[in-house]
Amino acid sequence: MGKMKKLMALLACTAMVAGSIAGCGSSSDTSAPAPAEPAVSEPAGESAEAGSEAAQGDSQVVSEESGTLRMYGPGLFAAVGENGTTDMITGVTRPGYSELIKRWNELYPNVTLEIEPIPWDNWKAAIQTAALSGDYDILIHGNGNADYSLDLTEYLEKDPEVKNALTFYPYRRNPDNMTEVRPYGLSYTLNPVVCVIDKEILKNYGVELPDSSWSLEDMTKIAESCTGTDPVTGKETYGISMVKASDAYKNYILIGRGMDNEIFEFSPKLSETKVNFDTPKTQEVFDYLAELGKYSSPDYLEGLDLANAYTEDHNLAMIWAEDVYNVYNTIKAAGLEERFMFLPLPKIQEGAHKGITCSNVGDLNICIYKDTEQKDLAWKFLKFLVTDPEVQQWLIDTNSIPANVEAGSLLYDVMPADYADAITEVISTSPEGYNSSASVWYDSTWFGTFQSDIVTEFDQLLKGNATSAEVTKDIQGTVDGYLKSLN
Questions:
Q1: Which UniProt keywords are given for this protein, alphabetically ordered (predicted)?
Q2: Is residue 14 part of a domain?
Q3: pTM, to two decimals
């Protein structure tokens, strides 16, 4: 009860002050199989009346609107299921979305929710098919695709409570004018990249623990110093594990942003946009990644270097981790909370965002199908998902990090400051409009095979089969060819 009162007070403050900052990416949440039939909220009746009374008792307005909202997609709803899940390794139990439906029924007793979760397998094609069918009002993790997602600019302008509550949106470029970035949905949970540091390994090598003010140079020095034979345990250790090699474009995003390497000059037409990739600065980014590769395990490229991660046999001084809440749970279940800590990635070196962490943020987002006839009602569900205090507590209970920046304070109730501080810093300092899918540093949407080309070239770079100059030249040629094909 005390937590809820604290959160409600914080959220009330959020509605009275201007929002400060925003950003976006993808989530690593693992979904459970979709149920055979969509979950349906209880219709109005005795239970709805009871919920209505409870809501009124909390001085909250109960809506008289009626109707049905149909939603479809992957993400958290599929991961926890209707009735919740228990992790067999960590023993952590997460409540199902039936609790969210129950809360909705208290506020909207005459609006039925039909939720149809799906797994991540082929989710993009499934979402596109669902959108084309016209059968759904809301797309869960619609990923801000402008082809079928509603531009929420006007709703956000009219509803400052939502605008001020969030720092992060699934921004995408407006296909009719590529110089414009629009919010085609709302993020409801976030997944920031942090650096997991093994304090024991650093201590054994006599390396001072960094703090959140550290630089890219500091990271390289620590990685180099902690690669070799541990002078205390005699075990082989490695300085760093970057984001897995199969997602190596994320490593480029992090360091490209850290070095303020702007590569895009957007024009209204995509075909007239300039991509400046084959430059000395981009080569510097790849040189830095290649240097870190020297201090990685030989198993890194095969994705096997994390086999002993977060156990007594842990042998990596630093890990760039994405699924941070699950990482914390794994550490806690192993009884190793004192051994590890989280830090934001190093500070951006120069440019307008100098001094802000270069950590990226993934998200789970939700959008309104652009042709639904229930846009206003769908917006009310989106607002409910990101502002209702009980929903924010439910998100925390599902081991998620709410996108509502004030609700991030609830993390301190479930994990120590050595872990929560890094998460909240990344989220609260993400610059306005930053989004890895729509930024001047990186864009994953519009440039053909650009993203997969970075993964391929990164592999060759770390294997020693290509130089940074060859990497940037190859990728520049592919992007130029793609843009020419648009004319």
A1: Cell membrane, Lipoprotein, Membrane, Palmitate, Signal
A2: no
A3: 0.87
